Amino acid sequence: MTAPYLAIDVPAESAYLKCIRGFLKPVLENRFSDDDARQIILAIDEACANIIKHGQGWLKPRGRIELEFVDGKKMIVVRILNFCKESQIAKIRPRDLADVKPGGLGTHFMREVMDTMDFEPDKEHAGRVALVMTRAVSGKGDNEAQGR
């Protein structure tokens, strides 16, 4: 049996971040503890907010957030297509935690919450990359995952 696959495609506007959170919440709460599910949702929300603020600001009209979610037996995979231009990858890094000021901690938080955070060529959009994040299933999802 293949892992369940879910996808959502919304305008890259902050008003639609709530749609993404609501889309992911039921499946994540079914597989993870409430606290872990909340943290994963916040990490994904941060990635999507970064698209709106940094990744697609050059697109006129605004682009879209295309998110794919694979609910695997032992791991979830989140792929956010059209995350940014290939040339922007080098600029995506957490700032030094000793540098106390607002902002700039999103990638640090995403790396803390997720097991992996990588970039891969976006097959749908030439010259752009997808953000791929994974997280092993643990907690209340373990018993259910064994039966999948």
Protein model, in words:
There is one protein chain. The protein is built from four helices and five strands, in the order βααββαββα. The protein is of the alpha+beta class. It has a single domain, classed as 2-Layer Sandwich (Heat Shock Protein 90). The protein has a five-stranded antiparallel β-sheet. Strand 4 and strand 5 form a beta hairpin. The chain is globular. The C terminus is likely disordered.
Would you kindly provide a brief summary of this structure?
34% of the residues lie in helices and 28% in strands. The protein has 148 residues and is an alpha+beta fold. Strands 1-2-3-5-4 form a five-stranded antiparallel sheet.
* Overall number of strands: 5
Rg over CA atoms, rounded to whole Å, is: 15 Å
Going by helix content, strand content and strand pairing, the class is: alpha+beta
Order of helices and strands: EHHEEHEEH
Distance between the termini: 8 Å
How many domains comprise the coordinates?
1
Q: Return residue spans where pLDDT drops below 50 for at least 5 consecutive residues.
A: 141-148
What share of the residues lie within helices?
25-40%
Which CATH architecture?
2-Layer Sandwich
Index terms:
disordered C terminus, Heat Shock Protein 90, 5 strands, single chain, 148 residues, alpha+beta
Task: Record the SSE blueprint.
Elements: E1 5-11, H1 17-31, H2 34-55, E2 64-71, E3 75-85, H3 106-113, E4 116-121, E5 128-136, H4 141-146
Antiparallel strand pairs: 1-2, 2-3, 3-5, 4-5
Helix pairs in contact: 1-2, 2-3
